[in-house]
Design a protein that fits this description.
It is built from 23 helices and no strands. The termini are far apart. The protein has one domain (43-430). The longest helix is centred in the middle third of the chain and has 31 residues, at 269-299. It has helices at 4-20, 25-40, 44-54, 62-75, 78-90, 96-112, 115-132, 137-148, 150-153, 158-166, 172-178, 180-201, 211-237, 242-261, 269-299, 302-313, 317-334, 337-355, 360-374, 382-391, 395-401, 403-418, 420-430. By secondary structure, the protein is an all-alpha fold. The chain is globular.
Length: 434
Amino acid sequence: MIDQTVATLILMGGFVVLLVLRVPITFALAACSIATASYLRIPLMAIVQQMVQGVRSFSLLAIPFFIIAGEMMGSGGIARKLINLANVLVGRVRGGLAMVNVVESMFFGGISGSAVADVASTGTIMIPMMKQKGYDDDFSVGITVTSATQGIIIPPSHNMILYSVAAGGVSVGRLFLAGFVPGVLLGVSLMVMAYIISVKRRYPKEPKVSLKEGIKVFLDAFLGLLTAIIIIGGVVSGVFTATESAAVAAVYAFIITFFVYRQIPLKAFKGILYNTLKTLTMVMALIASASAFSWLMAYLRIPARATEMLLSVTDNRILLLLLINVLLLLLGMIMDMAPLILIVTPILYPVVVGKLGLSPIHFGIMLMINLAIGLCTPPVGSALFVGCAIGKISIERATRAMLPFYLAMVIVLLLITYVPAITMTVPNLLMPGG
């Protein structure tokens, strides 16, 4: 006799056990899906069909183009140009290099869409530069890692595309637009905190840049920044779909990287393709496994039961949203971002959108910020690991130095959660009714 409680334990409990045993998430999702289907006597071909169906979405075609565009721009010298531009804008204030770090991450996030890529590309420049100018190494790593999370929120972000697919086809264009104000707000909050620390520790200012030199720096960086403008402008104007704009941006990035900036030889394109393929393989395998896992969750009514459980705790909207944020923050500490998006969206979407009445766009940005914080928190924060490796300091030291920045990020998260206008004003103005 088949017991749905036992099946749920096999699916969810088995997944937790495999995670504790450090089995890669893709294999853990697939193994638990196969084991649960076998117990339920569901033909394994049905699981295979769900995995194939999961990667057949047209929207997912944008992901490889975003990845390769980010790889090319990250390898082609754009990071240094964006740092110079950020220095022109904010370098003159106390703790100028910290401000430069944050503003540069705003720019680079609009190109790469990846926090880890931001830390890896710009951290190798900014962290040694800050240490040389007298900044503490733990502060340098902390501001680099936390500011890099803007790449998850400021469009374009391939994680938003994953959320769109997991949520059943939410407008990618509206998601992109919704990320602008929260992303900038996050950056400003980090700059305020960095300024307070810089004044206290007497960190230096950067020399003033002349107007002529500033214009030259802007023109030098503008072609790189145009990548993000092509993507966002194409989607918002309706000229391109998200997939088409990503493809155009990839071609544009290829031309700019190899024929305009020319800081790497054309033969480096082979390595860029290899890195893109590695990343894409991991992402697509994860999506396929998560699709089967999510289908079984729906089959076992896990999202409906989770909704009932959360509503049994409290029916107060404010407390429920706070509880969901705490849950997402805790999950973000122990799991990577992409699998979490694919797993928790089907579970929490009915609660947040169906019962609490939040817009799917609003929930998507709330989810992105929660999981972005997870990228810079131990024990599995991938951006934190990369930053510590570059800065040559321990995770413990970096985490202590980042406590003020964590506070700033959580304040922004709460503002975005409880003030929908922060997220929804721009998409409602530029893409109403989408």
